[in-house]
Amino acid sequence: MKALIAFLAFILLAAAGCTTRSKARAEAQAAYQAGQQQTFAQVAEARRINIRFIGPVRHAEVIWVDGLTLAQAIAAAGYWDKRDPKVVVIARQRERINISPRELLNGEDWPLEPGDTVEMHP
What we know:
The chain has 122 residues and is of the alpha+beta class. It has two domains: 17-47; 51-121, Outer membrane lipoprotein wza domain like (Outer membrane lipoprotein wza fold like), CATH 3.10.560. The chain is 45% helix and 18% strand. It has four helices and five strands; from the N terminus they run H-H-E-E-H-E-E-H-E. The protein has helices at 2-16, 21-47, 70-77, 101-105; strands at 51-54, 61-62, 87-92, 95-99, 117-121. The protein has a five-stranded mixed sheet. A hairpin with a 2-residue loop joins strand 3 and strand 4 (95-99). The chain is elongated, with a radius of gyration of 27 Å.
């Protein structure tokens, strides 16, 4: 009797951990598709040339043109907060360029490159 109970317990434990082939195939296909979508999104991001803004602006993306500067892009994006920004950062590929808001407000300007992201926080 003990042997029969042990055998049934073994069968139940083994069955509980099993995955059907169709379920495993569906999970593998879902994982593959998720990976494909992530890859396509990364490629699209790498090809982005417009300037993206993070912060209180009316337009989160500004069309990049040759010679575009930070001040021009901020004006085009429509900064709307009543307070002057305390933090301005240009994120460019793998580097972050911290910009002094005081220098920016005093007329100093920085050239932007295709695909830059500008972060502005009051």
